[in-house]
Amino acid sequence: MSLSEFAKADLSKILEELTTDEAISLIAGVGFWHTCAIERLGIPAIKVSDGPNGVRGNHFLMSTPAKVLLSSTAMGATLDPELLHTIGLKLLAPEARLKAASLVLAPTCNIQRNPLGGRSFESFSEDPYLSGILASAYIKGLQDGGIGATIKHFCANDKEDERFSYDSVVSDRALREIYMMPFMLAQKYAQPWAIMTAYNRLNGIHVAEDPHMLQDIVRKEWGFDGIFMSDWTGTYSVDAGINAGVDLEMPGVNKWRTLDLTNRCINARKVTVRTIKERALQVLKVVQKCAREAPEVLDGDGEERTHESEEDTALLREVASESIVLLKNDNGVLPIDKSKVKKVAIVGGNAKAVILSGGGSAALKPSYFISPYDGIVNALGEGVEVTYSEGARAFLTLPTLEWDLTTEKNQGARGWVAQWYPHESDDSVKPLDTPIATQFFDETKLLVCTSYPKGITRKWTMKLRGFLKPKTYGIDFEFGLIAAGRAKLWVDGNLVIDNWSRQRRGDYFFGFGSVEERGVYRLQANQSHEVYVEFCNVRAPADGDEDEMVLDFNAGLRLGGAEVRDSDDLMNQAVKLSGEADVVIAVVGLNSDFETEGHDRKTLALPGRTDELIQKVAEVNKNTIVVTQAGSAITMPWVDAVPGIVHAWYLGNMTGDAIAQVLLGDVNPAGRLSLTFPKRLEDVPSFASFSLENGKVRYSEDLMVGYKHYHKTGIKPLFNFCHGLSYTTFQYSNLALSGVTYAEGDIRLTATLTLTNTGSIMGSEAVQLYVTLPPAAGCTHPPLQLKAFKKVKGLKAGASVEVVLDLDKYAVSYWDEKHSTWNVDRGIYTVRVGGSSAKEALVLSGQFEVSKPFTWNGL
Fold first, then answer.
1. What is the average pLDDT across 668-677?
2. From CA 463, how far away is CA 484, in angstroms rounded?
3. In the CATH hierarchy, which fold is given to the domain comprising 405-563?
4. Helix/strand/coil (H/E/C) assignment for every residue in 356-394
5. Residue 408 burial (CB count, 10 A)
6. How far is residue 767's CA from residue 754's CA, in Å, rounded to a whole number?
7. Which of 106, 425, 453, 540 has the fewest Cβ atoms within 10 angstroms?
């Protein structure tokens, strides 16, 4: 059967022809990224690929360069569904085709319950309605481009520590109204082809083994007809997951659903052939959809490619700049008028660093990158003198060295060369004398997941060699070595780091890596120094863990380094340069070491002495502008000391250009915070219940997540949800509410208002509508809930526009735990409209009455 014939085939007939073993093969992956092909019946394999802010392709090691998009929190900050549809259609879908992938593992649609969550940057918002509407637009754009979306991680997967085992204890109402709502809206408006189940337990049961969640709610209640896919290694049994409704176990490495184990479960009557074929049918439906919507992906050569165009570059720049949030702008310090500025000091640990996104499966290898420093310098032009100082170190692990190493002593390509050695036997950690492959690497963070040379043994060794040449002066250089496996570093034949004999366990490489071990070596001026690393994929013993595990699909090595600098000297240099400048731009924040899959942050503070740097710089220059980079909330103890603050999230390839456009006024900032920034960690709604208690995470804040908590308690945050300033001003007026009309199991209502640009330049505004439900007996409602929003773009100075916001049953419903239904009560509902969730920003208000109460289920 040809691919075109399979695309039109009757799947019920194919299902009848499947043998039991073939059906079992279809419901588990092959390798790391593929489904199983059944050539006898013409069933093709499809490839899936990460992820939320770009499409990686098959390889973690020497991956194909990718277009790196802004983080999901930055996408959330646009409040612009049209823009997210464009991202899916114009950037992600074509990129997936270039990577030969039919299904993208995105979007991530969990809730920003606590900014300490390691993957907070991957999800859109703390608000379920905003998250669901934006996820729907993202999915629809991607699938309109013929590529399937996999919304994840279902459900209540809002932290990373002990992520395979912790139990999210959530009330049924909070689960429905907060944590399931984004997935529910995505199913209503976009119908994703796949849903990925989360690692964690939910109310005592692993989600991947919960038939009530997967079958009763999502399939029967919501009408989902795609596949349930496990997260990678997020399957914990054979029969429980199959019976619960997980159609596809991923990956196909070290899987549970082998022919042997699954047939044993069939023989023990723990699972039936009928159930297995039901799961196989769901997989077939999606494979057929991929064959129908993008046959050229399945019919191609399978090679991964990259492509750049001026159109794509312009769009990447646009989407990045649209997300940037102007948090503070006292005395009109922004935008910078470069005609009036002669000298600018750029300080901060993030200014020149390569910071594109958070870490983990969202991390990508960029096709190119523009740093904040380069973007600002280029935008200022030759007429402005720019000075620079790092000021305060901001990294957790030492920066990688791919831009510093060369393959030969005095010249050569950027990078280093590795030789692969098989071992004498599976019991030996001794390599053979002759390498079986030689490979060039232009990266010094190596995750060896799917990319092995032919003939490699289960245990193997890699020997890497490159050359490092300092600048014109001799320096003490500190190296850092992390290994998921074991490694040693020599420089000029001298052992500098031993991470081989015995290790300290760490969080790196998805929890399999060691702590970074460091060593210092003196580099001589104008001399190339040989850097040599020996690395083996067998972990060394550690205190409390003597297991020498063979890492057969998650071995990793990371080599970093930096010049040894006295922290006081760095600080003093930055302060001196700042005092001599007309304007200071401090670029500070986090990076993928702090915000990453696999572990949670421990603090909201900026790293090291960053806060001290900003305070001291502000003392010597009243025109200090702070640009912060972080995928989630951070604290700002210096907020009152500086006149200008811009939050820039993680912005991908075009980071520097997008930041420069906003700072210099080429783009009028229109981003709005997609989550609340608290003054201190103790103010976060889940502060007292984010940590594990005997393996349980108790969602004790219940419905009061994010801004709802701050309104309920009266605690004033640092910056409110959806806060964001502009270089122009807007006036809201003439709010009018239509009467409520009733349809079967639904209502319709519109809110109309006038928005006027009262400033002197064109600008964009995110109009937001919040609803307050009437009191209900024995039931507490959040004080305000976002229920509609609209991005008004490019409104000219002095111009007005009528804004219409539509409301339906979702705006007036709450979950009734007693009867397991959605309730719409009779009563008076209050509407508030404005430019952020802050009470003072909600300048318009009105009321409408629901006179006919009703209940509903489904979508």
1. 98
2. 15
3. Jelly Rolls (2.60.120)
4. CCCECCCCCCECCCCCHHHHHHHHHCCCCEEEEECCCCC
5. 12
6. 10
7. 425
Task: Give the CA angle between residues 792, 797, 798 to the nearest 5°.
Answer: 100
Bond preceding residue 335 cis, omega within 30 of 0: yes
In degrees, rounded to 5, the angle at the alpha carbon of residue 644 between the alpha carbons of residues 640 and 649 is 105
| Structural contact between residues 489 and 532, judged by C-beta atoms closer than 8 angstroms | yes
Largest CA distance in the chain: 84
Give yes or no for residue 103 having a pLDDT over 90: yes
Q: What is the C-alpha R_g of the chain?
A: 27
pLDDT at 429: 80
pLDDT in tens, 530-583: 999 999 999 999 999 998 999 988 899 999 999 999 999 999 999 999 999 999
363: its two tokens: 């991390």
C-beta neighbour count of 752 within 10 angstroms: 13
Beta-bridge partner residues of 389? 347
| DSSP one-letter string for 40-81 | GGTBPP-BEE--TTS---S-STTPPPBPPPPPHHHHHHH--H
Angle at CA 234, nearest 5°, toward 229 and 236? 110
Number of neighbours of residue 712 by Cβ within 10 angstroms:
17
Cα 241–chain centre separation: 26
Give residues with Cβ within 8 angstroms of 38, minimum separation 6.
18, 22, 25, 26
Residue 776 CA, chain-centre distance (Å), reads 38
Query: 117 with 632: CB under 8 angstroms?
Result: yes
- Closest by CA to 685, choosing from 178, 199, 185, is 178
Q: Is the dihedral of CA 561, 566, 567, 571 positive or negative?
A: negative
- Residue 66 clears pLDDT 80, i.e. is over it: yes
Those residues whose C-beta lies under 8 Å from the C-beta of residue 274, and which sit 6 or more positions away, are none
Q: What is the pLDDT of residues 162-175, one digit of tens each?
A: 999 999 999 999 99
Q: What is the pLDDT of residues 318-344, one digit of tens each?
A: 999 999 999 999 999 999 999 999 999
CATH dotted code for 730-856: 2.60.40.10
Q: Which run of H or of E encompasses 319?
A: helix 310-323
Helix, strand, or coil here: 721? coil
Architecture of domain 317-395+566-693: 3-Layer(aba) Sandwich (3.40)
- Cβ contact 449:439 at 8 Å: no
**Angle between the 259-267 and 273-293 helix axes, to the nearest 10 degrees?**
140
pLDDT single digits (tens) 183-224: 999 999 999 999 999 999 999 999 999 999 999 999 999 999
Q: What is the DSSP letter of 795?
A: E
Pairing of strands 194-197, 227-230: parallel
Residues constituting the chain: 859
* Active site (catalytic) residues: 231
* Domain positions in the chain: 317-395+566-693, 405-563, 730-856
What residues have CB less than 8 Å from 106, skipping those under 6 apart?
A: 50, 51, 52, 92, 138, 142, 149, 150, 151, 152
Counting Cβ atoms within 10 Å, is residue 270 exposed (0-12), middle (13-18) or buried (19+)?
middle
Say which residue the tokens 């464009």 belong to: 86
Evaluate whether 659 touches 324 at the Cβ level (below 8 Å). yes
Is the pLDDT confidence value at 778 over 90?
no
Please give the C-alpha separations between residue 26 and each of 20, 21, 34, 250, 281, in angstroms, as whole numbers.
Answer: 10, 9, 10, 11, 9
Average pLDDT for the chain: 96
